[in-house]
Design goal:
The complex is a heterodimer of chains A (295) and B (284). Helix content of chain A is 77%, strand content 0%. With 295 residues, chain A is mainly alpha-helical. Chain B is mainly alpha-helical and 284 residues long. Chain B is built from twelve helices and no strands. The chains are: A mainly alpha (295), B mainly alpha (284).
Chain lengths: 295, 284
């Protein structure tokens, strides 16, 4: 009887540790797999020419990822600019100024919105944002646009990331001890001054990591962006032009990638690049969060 | 001086209130638009029929193939994720209970894993498929989605387990039970509400994800019967139908979007409800 229990314990211990190691080894396995698949590419072109060249001709074996990387960066940057004021001010309002009722109803709603699939946001983008950009925003700036543009991608991404970032910011601001704010108020500071000096200044790492993780999420987002950004290969500074972000490149071309030599390696290289960039981002900002939590 | 302070306060309170309420308005607007557009096109055929001949030119049929495929993939992936996620989460909170530092490091890596975009999982699943000589199939989709959701499941479950007081674990050991018995009969039971939340959350993630199944599950007009057949999924059905130039087909994309949204809403409300229901019997 005792032996049976001990054996069960040992077997189970083995199962537990194998599962945990499997999950933890996942990024390493994914990274290695993608790298091996992409490695034939390095024989032809150096890493730098892959990343910085804008010469994209798969059928002739020339792969320059610059249009895709700049496209991704541009869309992500725009979405960051849109989310920056909205999330910060809303999080402050919800945690510091609003009634308890509002935050108690909004928190679950934000949670649900953060869980909505990205394709839903894409549908909304096609329905509302694209016509809006083509019909109203572009003419207001004196240009014309098809609507499927970097700006649309940025707006849709921003809307997608807002619940995600807002959620984290609310968590961060909620941990500020009420005593600190009360101390600041009793010194004669106004409510806003207390927020500025205690809530914001005291939580720089938390705020930065919330936005950092939001940016990482936006950078890797595929379907929603792909639906509204137009998918045209070119390097352009005009937000009303179409672009072709990195994830969209992978998603759009898996069908033909086996028919052109090296094309599959190039796409796996794109996935590898995404993985590395986002993993680095996540590790930095998660580290900031973990460090502040320990204090 | 005092006047300026008060004016600054007024401006910023107004600005943040304005931002918050317009945000709420926009988010409500999104849900509203998707629902209004979709409900007009929604009919029983959409849910009960697979695409018939000429469906993609506005002919008869529905998206049963995609609904079934999505459910199959999400259920299969969730089962696999439970199989490797449950022991991993218990291991962190039972075996490693005395090693705070290791616990925190593992949590840190899991959090970083959570952020890897699904397209990378999709590409990796595709290389795996090529490596094993498989075709795009239900099985490949299930495995890829399982990889995608297991870190999410572990971390969500772990978050609840980590709040369980250590005394409970010590009491169980003191009564002579092994660590396994402690893990499954005491810690798992106490963390059961968290387990339900983790399962439903991962399930929702699995059903809504498009980029990971794009390469691996393929697309078909039939309801898959075997694991080696390709399977359609709801997010991809929305994506493909929305790309069509024919208005009727686009309408159906909106209807499919409503179906997907309803499934997600149902999942997240039942997660809340169940977590509340099961935590009533917990020790405190």
């Amino acid at each position: 009887m005792l032996l049976k229990r001990i054996l069960a314990d040992k077997a189970n211990g083995l199962w537990m540790i194998t599962s945990l190691v499997t999950i933890l080894a996942l990024p390493l396995v994914i990274g290695t797999g993608l790298y091996l698949k992409a490695s034939p590419l390095f024989d032809q072109q150096s890493f730098f020419s892959l990343v910085f060249s804008a010469d994209w001709a798969p059928s002739e074996g020339r792969f320059g990822f610059r249009p895709y990387i700049t496209g991704s960066l541009y869309v992500t940057l725009l979405s960051f600019l849109f989310t920056l004021p909205v999330c910060l001010l809303s999080a402050i309002y919800l945690t510091q100024f609003s009634s308890q009722w509002l935050i108690r109803t909004m928190h679950p709603v934000i949670d649900v919105l953060a869980g909505l699939p990205s394709v839903i946001y894409g549908v909304w983008g096609v329905l509302i944002v694209v016509p809006l950009v083509a019909g109203n925003i572009a003419p207001a700036f004196g240009t014309s646009s098809a609507g499927y543009s970097i700006l649309s991608g940025g707006i849709v991404l921003a809307i997608m990331c807002i619940p995600y970032i807002l959620n984290m910011l609310i968590e961060v601001f909620r941990t500020v001890p009420a005593g600190l704010i009360e101390a600041s108020l009793s010194m004669g500071a106004t409510r806003w001054e207390s927020v500025k000096h205690v809530v914001i200044r005291g939580n720089y790492p938390g705020i930065i990591s919330a936005y950092g993780l939001g940016i990482a999420k936006a950078f890797g987002e595929t379907i929603a962006v792909m639906m509204v950004v137009g998918n045209v290969v070119k390097v352009s500074g005009n937000p009303f032009d179409a672009a072709y972000p990195l994830p969209a490149l992978i998603a759009n071309n898996y069908g033909e990638m086996l028919s052109i030599p090296m094309y599959d390696s190039a796409l796996m290289f794109a996935a590898f690049l995404l993985l590395i960039i986002i993993l680095i981002f996540n590790m930095i900002f998660r580290y900031l969060i973990h460090k502040t939590r320990k204090q | 001086m005092r006047r300026i302070k008060i004016i600054e306060e007024k401006i910023f309170v107004f600005l943040s209130a304005f931002m918050t309420y317009s945000l709420i308005l926009v988010l409500m607007f999104i849900i509203g638009v998707v629902f209004v557009k979709g409900f007009n096109a929604l009919n029983p055929d959409m849910i009960l029929k697979t695409p018939r001949g000429g469906y993609y030119y506005g002919g008869e049929g529905g998206v049963l193939n995609a609904i079934a495929g999505s459910l199959y993939i999400a259920v299969g992936a969730t089962l696999i994720a439970i199989f490797i996620g449950l022991p991993a989460a218990l291991y962190i909170n039972v075996q490693l209970i005395r090693h705070r530092k290791t616990q925190n490091t593992i949590r840190y890596f899991l959090d970083a894993l959570w952020g890897i975009p699904s397209i990378v999982y999709g590409a990796f699943g595709f290389t795996l498929m090529l490596f094993f000589g498989m075709n795009a199939s239900l099985l490949a989709g299930i495995i890829t989605v399982a990889l995608l959701i297991s870190p999410i499941m572990v971390r969500t479950f772990d978050e609840v387990l980590s709040t369980i007081p250590r005394g409970l674990y010590e009491a169980s050991l003191a009564l002579g039970s092994t660590r396994t018995e402690t893990a499954f009969k005491v810690i798992f039971r106490q963390g059961f509400p968290g387990f339900i939340t983790a399962v439903l959350l991962s399930f929702g993630r699995g059903i809504g994800d498009a980029a990971s199944v794009l390469f691996t599950a393929g697309y078909t007009d039939n309801v898959p019967v075997n694991l080696d057949e390709p399977a359609a999924t709801l997010p991809l059905a929305i994506f493909f139908q929305l790309g069509s130039p024919i208005p009727e087909v686009r309408e159906r994309a909106f209807a499919s979007a409503v179906i997907l949204t309803l499934i997600i809403l149902l999942l997240s409300f039942s997660a809340r409800f169940m977590a509340k229901k099961y935590s009533r019997t917990n020790l405190r």
